[in-house]
Amino acid sequence: MQVQILVKLMNKIAIVLFLYFLLIVGFPFQGNSQNKVSDELIIVADSIFSSALSDLEEEIEMPEEIVSFTPTSAYLIPDDPIAAMLDELSRQTFLEFYDFCAKKNILQTDIDIIVPSFSDSIITKRIEHLNLHTTMELSYNAVVARYIELYSSKKRELTSKMMGLSKIYFPMFEEMLDKYDMPLEIKYLAMVESALNPTATSRAGAKGLWQFMYTTGKMYGLEVTSVIDDRCDPYKATDAACRYLKDLYKIFGNWELAMAAYNCGPGNVNKAIRRSGGKTNYWQLWSYLPPETRGYVPAFIAVVYVMNYAKEYGISPLEPSIYHCEIDTVTVKQPLAFDQISEMLGIHYELLTFLNPPYKKGIIPASATKPYILRLPNQYSGLFIMNEDSLYTYKTLKGLEKEQIMAELKSLESQEMQYHKVKSGETLSSIASKYRCSVNNLRSWNGLKQNAILKVGQQLILYAPHGGAKPNASAQAKAPTQQASAVVVSSSTSTKQTQATYQVQEGDTLWNIAQKYPGISVEDIKTHNGLSGNNLKVGQMLKIPQ
User: Fold this and answer.
1) What is the CATH number of domain 414-465?
2) SS3 label, residue 508
């Protein structure tokens, strides 16, 4: 609407109001004179008001349809971190490989099946019954009800997957909780934390079943290097989580506040206690806690309830093809790669990765003075022990022999973890250039998606050579240590840079090709050639950045 139209309309309305005011107050006329003036004022007021309506209809064109308004991200309600973790479980490729097979007609997810629902009174009675068997305090209210609906209805298929995964992890959780004399119900907390995804990574950088941040993990003895991440080790991380939660319980005196502190840190819980005037009941502190923590304990209560009454909701576990009792451990005393174990013993590489998530590069950096644990299906542990010496010297079909493993370990161990705080104007590309790594490396180290947007002040984890970041000497020529007839090097007289071209030979992998060129990584070759996977074809020409 134009400004002049509004001004014109408001002026006429003001005159009409003034005339009606005069009618109410009256005039210093007597008898017929007063009646005559009143009648004339009414006529004038009606005329002005009709004129205003007419102007409004002529000047203003009403749109044929209302255009919808799309709010900016500043007005969007943020995603629930607990629901987001469930969604991440649905995207994990190990669930596709790892033979989870639901029994027919047990999980009722057909369109014509109505998901069971129960009244608040029934749920309250069930939770009261659960309270009889635990030292924890389980409550029921509207917030808990929302998460019960999430696990029992909206995400029921993922709940079924978690129930299947629980048969792999819960026996170990219960053993560890019993060791530290803690309530066994705390095992359900891992479902809230990671949806029982051993490699889950949060937006803040927390990792593993128990979602340890780097600093907290270090405090509780979890090793994190370029090759190892103990935060993803189900056994070590569970032990650390028990010790951390028990320490928090000693501070706050109840498990509800201990769990809240596990999520947002003890400092934030202490602040909430101060703001509330010294209250120590979780629900009395609820409104003073950080927004992301307010759903944490309610989600835990909901998981405890749904897991104990899953049958009533028509949910059964998607049974895995391996259980906790079918997994054995062996000790590795020399460097060993998953490729060697997979090819020589005939174990699926993906299964090795699933059972051994802390080994980030598929390499076990073991030595006689520092052995490491490898988890295998029971039927393979005897084979490993009988063929251990041969395994260490086994040359795989891909050419990944001991010398190459040692070379890669030396390269990885020469790097140290660093933190970078994002500054205004920085991009992944500029940060990667500063620390002499690739953009794909930065994404991998920090669990960033392809379209991730950096925020000023965000902390990024990266691995750089010892000594810190140095200017990227891109102008320095890099020459391969080995010359092969399959390699053709071309140069341009207009620039100082050269580009090598490599023709793929039988048995080549991206890794052993990269080893021929100092300073070139697998990610460099993939990025330069637009490769999304690791598959190569004999005769394929690859460009090697120089």
Assistant:
1) 3.10.350.10
2) coil
Report domain extents, the chain. Answer: 3-59, 83-313, 325-410, 414-465, 487-545
Q: Where is 100: in which H helix or E strand? A: none
Q: Report how far apart the first and last C-alpha atoms of the chain are (Å, whole number).
A: 62
Angle at 120 between CA 117 and CA 125, to 5 degrees: 105
319, exposed or middle or buried, with CB in 10 Å at 0-12, 13-18, 19+? middle
Of 193, 256, 343, 408, catalytic: 193
Alpha-carbon distance of 269 to 209, in angstroms, equals 23
pLDDT digits (tens, 9 = 90+) for 473-521: 443 333 333 333 334 333 333 333 456 788 888 777 777 787 777 667 7
* 128 counts as catalytic: no
CATH 3.10.350.10 fits 487-545, yes or no: yes
CB 459 within 8 Å of CB 492: no
Q: State how beta strands 487-491 and 372-377 pair.
A: unpaired
Q: Considering the entire predicted model, what is its pTM?
A: 0.62
Cα dihedral 265, 267, 273, 275 sign: negative
